[in-house]
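Re: 3-phosphoglyceric acid structure - here you go.
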Amino acid sequence: FTRLQDLIAQNALQGKRVFIRADLNVPQDDAGNITEDTRIRASVPAIQAAVKAGAKVMVTSHLGRPTEGEFKDEDSLAPVAKRLAELLGQPVELKQDWVDGAGLENLQAGQVVLLENVRVNQGEKKNSDELAQKMARLCDVYVNDAFGTAHRAEASTHGIAKFAPVAAAGPLLAAELDALGKALGAPARPLLAIVAGSKVSSKLSILKSLADKVDNLIVGGGIANTFMLAAGLKIGKSLAEPDLVEEAKAIIDLMSKRGAQVPIPTDVVCAKEFSPTAAATVKKVADVADDDMILDIGPETAALLAEQIAKAGTIVWNGPVGVFEFDQFGNGTKTLALAIADSKAFSIAGGGDTLAAIAKYAITDKIGYISTGGGAFLEFLEGKTLPAVEVLGSRAAGSQ
Ligand code: 3PG
């Protein structure tokens, strides 16, 4: 696909109307204060580059999942406009009802406006051609920099890319794809993945897709409990999905046929209840009692996995291996996090809980690449094509 940087190198943005689809879908508290602004920060380089290149810059994003055609105060990007203006060091006016071009007639080169929540427009979610064409008419150049929304075929992420005079990938989208390509396309081996979370069912396609590629698949959380059942171990009253034990067995078999491994814990941290004050007991897996809940991997398992991490050439991390929000069940995740931080491997991490663990154990600077994508990151791991990326590729192929 065409990259924004290519257009800038050709001096193709001077005086042009540039429409940037970013993912500024950030968490807010009840009072509307932004509680985490990583995605806004990550969107700044594209906007700044377009400003510097002399473009008239329109930026838009969705925020939450509003009902189309029913704009409510909490759907507004107003707090985002304020934060973006602070980060850019220039005014960012928020434009309402912009789809037909109202208020966008006299933009100046170097000016930045934010177009109100794109998802309140009729047709955005269902990728209506009519809306996509209207948005395409607003611009000379369309830039998609919204990796976090790349798995959605919506009018502002997909349809518009078919109709805009020029369509390009922004630097964040390109960097995410480059990092994921490096990790899964032609990885330095051994390739090790950590896939953890409460349910096998929600990550089954990822596990199956990675089972074909990785040398070492570390499972954690409720997912590991289901794999322990598959290995014939007792897990007491731990969270698991017994109906997926056969799927877990199939993954273990497939991996072992390739000489790859799914390490099963040898010790675990148990509690009698799920609570922040629950007493934690380390047990060998054979000693797990009927009334035990497994809430973390044990120290012996964590040390063994840390050794495997130290030998890896590439690490893909999605999900904490224990209930790390409660300190007494955080040692497994902490040990693996520090091992990743110490490793020389190229590492990539993504997903909300994983990012929270990275922040908690203060290893942000030690991860090769931290994805801004939640669902998009997971769908890439599943081996799915991201529609917003595919359309940019076919535009580029068509124009050659
Ligand atoms: C996300 O937060 O994962 C993205 O912004 C996509 O949001 P969505 O799931 O509401 O499409």
